[in-house]
């Protein structure tokens, strides 16, 4: 694991809405993510996890604070520049997979290459290799509707990594999966960090995910309460992860 | 890949895609019918002028259309004939007359009389007989598409025009009139008899020029010597004819309005369909945006969807158009599809596609990538 921060946020504040309905979703959050590290972001609903993930993924701009991707500040970037940054550096894995229902598994992954303008010598083969690496060699031509939840999430992982981004952000990647499929996805995310040196950040309520993480960051009311490894945080984790935490 | 995403987005719901294509197709059929009718009108209205051997037309002052003539002194042709560059000036007599069917009953016809020897205007699309046969007394040429209306169908059949015997000597097919009155061709002298016109009267004088003659100079020369007439080029006479029937009577405006409405309806259907499609795939578009897709990429997907819908609509429309054209071929107003009309339709299709894509793209432009985390 390298200690160089690939993605870092400093003193992030985020105000959502305005007037009487204004909510401060994040209150001075600092977090960094190193290459080869699998970090889990936990906390109860409304603690600001998804907002932080959106900011770290350069989808939302914070009200205050600094976001650095590969050492570059995103402060003065407009929406298109941020999109460009995401294309180049960030791969996303979503809770409900967000695959194109009309495209086959291979085409979904190939679409990711097309969006990123990735100049693979053979995009089809590159996409197939990405699917093989997540154990879906036999599902290349299946539509998402023909795949199980675990398989769909694996396709989503293949789609996220196919263009070789340095950062993988996952939003509740196991929430819709049974325990076996969830374990498979978590193993895959850990492999991406450990074997491929990517920085992986996953938001999760799932206590089964804790043993897979290198670091667990707990959030509450828009702040980071604590951070550490699973053994350090084990006694407090169920409380810190929130009521929805399921073991 | 853009094409595949666009295609699969649409084909994912085949029923909706077919409904979209059918809607666009129907709009195209409507546009084609309206514009085709307009083209058919234009051709029918100008058929006589287009088939006449005339480099210049001498017409009575204020003549509005070929079918609606007044008369001039045919002796003026001698004054016109001496103008430098004139090869021949031929009188023509045109007028409405009552055609009495052999089996009883009558209808109105437009008698067109000219000298068969000069052939300044003679029937075309001849099916039986020769135009030369019109030299014979009582001889007339009729078009078989009006057989039922005229009560005659073949050579030798007899009818009466204004009480004077008329014998079918020539039959044609496809010479139609914009009005409900069929054309009946005959010799100039016979026309004068049918229309009870004095031998010194004519409706028009058709001027043929010698090779290399300057039409503008000849026209100027004739106009300066003949009172109470206008000297028109075929193009001018044609335009006047079209303006008379299409614009002054409102028929053309109604057709143009219908075509415009069809384009508007087609555009709205297409915009609505694409807009709905974008809404249905909002999640996918938000995902693309979250993954870093550029606006250009998203717009390309939308443009491609619009193009696919348009092409599918055009394909369905071409089947419909084929049927409509075939059905109209034997009607009094056949729908004409020319190469230029096809170009116009292509431009209309592109315009509709562009408008629809633009509306849908505006919707996609507002998709928030953060939506992907809010499900």
Briefly summarize what is shown.
Chain A has helices at 49-56, 79-89, 105-115, 123-133, 149-161, 179-194, 230-233, 237-241; strands at 5-16, 23-34, 38-42, 64-69, 72-73, 90-93, 167-171, 199-203, 215-220, 223-228. With 247 residues, chain A is an alpha/beta fold.
What does the secondary structure layout of this molecule look like, with pairings?
The complex is a heterodimer of chains A (247) and B (375).
Chain A (H helix, E strand, L loop, with lengths): L4 E12 L6 E12 L3 E5 L6 H8 L7 E6 L2 E2 L5 H11 E4 L11 H11 L7 H11 L15 H13 L5 E5 L7 H16 L4 E5 L11 E6 L2 E6 L1 H4 L3 H5 L6
Parallel strand pairs in A: 3-8, 3-9, 6-7, 7-8
Antiparallel strand pairs in A: 1-2, 1-4, 4-5, 9-10
Helix pairs in contact in A: 3-4, 3-5, 4-5, 5-6
Chain B lengths: L1 H10 L2 H38 L4 E5 L11 E2 L2 H6 L4 E15 L5 E9 L11 E3 L10 E5 L3 H4 L7 E4 L2 E9 L10 E5 H7 L6 E2 L1 E6 L5 H11 L3 E4 L1 H15 L2 H30 L1 H9 L4 H34 L10 H27 L10
Parallel strand pairs in B: 4-9, 6-8
Antiparallel strand pairs in B: 1-11, 1-12, 2-10, 3-4, 3-7, 3-11, 5-8, 6-9, 7-8
Strand order within the widest sheet of chain A? 6-7-8-3-9-10
Q: Major β-sheet of chain A, in short?
A: 6 strands, mixed
CATH topology of the domain at 5-97 and 165-241 in chain A: Rossmann fold
Radius of gyration of chain B: 29 Å
**CATH architecture of the domain at 5-97 and 165-241 in chain A, please?**
3-Layer(aba) Sandwich
Share of residues in strands of chain A: 25-35%
The number of domains of chain B: 2
What's the mean pLDDT score of chain B? 84
Shape descriptor of chain A reads globular
Distance between the termini of chain B: 27 Å
User: Quick one: CATH superfamily of the domain at 5-97 and 165-241 in chain A?
Assistant: P-loop containing nucleotide triphosphate hydrolases
What's the CATH class label of the domain at 5-97 and 165-241 in chain A? Answer: Alpha Beta
How would you classify the helix and strand content of chain A by structural class?
A: alpha/beta
Output the number of helix runs of chain B: 11
Strand order of the largest sheet of chain B: 3-4-9-6-8-7
Q: Which oligomeric state applies? A: heterodimer
Would you tell me the structural class of the helices and strands of chain B? alpha+beta
Helix tally of chain A equals: 8
């Amino acid at each position: 694991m390298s200690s160089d921060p690939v993605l870092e946020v400093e003193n992030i504040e985020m105000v959502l809405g305005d007037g009487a309905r204004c909510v401060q979703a994040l209150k001075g959050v600092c977090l960094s993510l190193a290459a080869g590290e699998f970090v889990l972001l936990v906390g109860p609903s409304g603690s600001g996890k998804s907002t932080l993930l959106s900011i770290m993924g350069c989808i939302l701009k914070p009200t205050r604070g600094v976001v650095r991707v590969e050492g570059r500040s995103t402060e003065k970037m407009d929406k298109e520049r941020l999109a460009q940054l995401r294309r180049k550096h960030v791969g996303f894995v979503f809770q409900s997979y967000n695959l194109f229902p009309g495209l086959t598994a291979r085409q979904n992954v190939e679409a990711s290459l097309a969006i990123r303008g990735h100049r693979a010598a053979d995009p089809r083969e590159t996409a197939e290799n990405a699917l093989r690496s997540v154990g879906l060699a036999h599902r290349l031509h299946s539509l998402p509707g023909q795949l199980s939840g675990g398989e769909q999430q694996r396709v989503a992982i293949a789609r996220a990594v196919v263009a070789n981004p340095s950062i993988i952000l996952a939003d509740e990647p196991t929430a819709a999966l049974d325990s076996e499929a969830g374990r498979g996805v978590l193993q895959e995310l850990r492999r991406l960090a450990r074997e491929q040196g990517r920085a992986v950040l996953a938001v999760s309520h799932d206590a089964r995910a804790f043993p897979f993480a290198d670091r667990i960051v707990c959030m509450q009311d828009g702040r980071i309460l604590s951070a550490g490894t699973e053994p350090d945080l084990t006694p407090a984790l169920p409380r810190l992860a929130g009521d929805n935490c399921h073991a | 890949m853009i094409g595949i995403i666009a295609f699969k987005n649409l084909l994912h719901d085949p029923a909706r895609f077919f409904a979209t294509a059918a809607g666009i197709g129907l709009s195209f059929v409507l546009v084609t019918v309206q514009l085709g009718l307009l083209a058919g009108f234009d051709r029918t209205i100008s058929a006589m002028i287009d088939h006449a051997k005339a480099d210049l037309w001498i017409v009575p002052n204020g003549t509005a259309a070929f079918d609606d003539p007044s008369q001039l002194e045919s002796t003026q042709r001698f004054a016109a004939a001496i103008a430098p560059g004139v090869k021949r000036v031929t009188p023509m007599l045109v007028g409405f007359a009552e055609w009495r069917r052999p089996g009883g009953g009558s209808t109105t016809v437009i008698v067109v009389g000219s000298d068969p020897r000069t052939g300044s205007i003679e029937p075309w699309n001849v099916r039986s007989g020769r135009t030369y046969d019109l030299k014979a007394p009582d001889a007339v040429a009729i078009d078989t598409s009006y057989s039922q209306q005229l009560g005659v169908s073949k050579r030798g059949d007899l009818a009466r025009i204004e009480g004077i015997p008329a014998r079918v000597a020539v039959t044609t097919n496809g010479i139609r009139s914009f009005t409900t009155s069929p054309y009946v061709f005959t010799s100039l002298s016979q026309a004068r008899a049918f229309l009870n016109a004095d031998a010194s009267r004519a409706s028009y004088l058709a001027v043929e020029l010698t090779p290399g003659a300057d039409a503008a100079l000849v026209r100027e020369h004739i106009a300066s010597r003949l009172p109470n007439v206008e000297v028109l080029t075929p193009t001018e006479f044609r335009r006047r004819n079209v303006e008379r029937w299409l614009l002054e009577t409102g028929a053309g405006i109604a057709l143009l309005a219908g075509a415009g409405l069809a384009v508007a309806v087609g555009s709205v259907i297409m915009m609505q369909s694409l807009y709905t499609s974008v809404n249905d795939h909002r999640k996918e578009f938000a995902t693309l945006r979250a993954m870093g897709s550029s606006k250009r990429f998203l717009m390309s997907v939308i443009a491609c969807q619009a193009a696919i819908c348009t092409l599918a609509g055009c394909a369905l429309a071409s089947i419909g158009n084929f049927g409509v054209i075939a059905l109209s071929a034997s009607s009094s107003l056949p729908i004409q599809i020319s190469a230029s009309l096809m170009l116009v339709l292509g431009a209309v299709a592109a315009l509709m596609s562009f408008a629809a894509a633009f509306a849908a793209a505006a919707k996609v432009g507002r998709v928030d990538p953060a939506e992907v985390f809010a499900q």
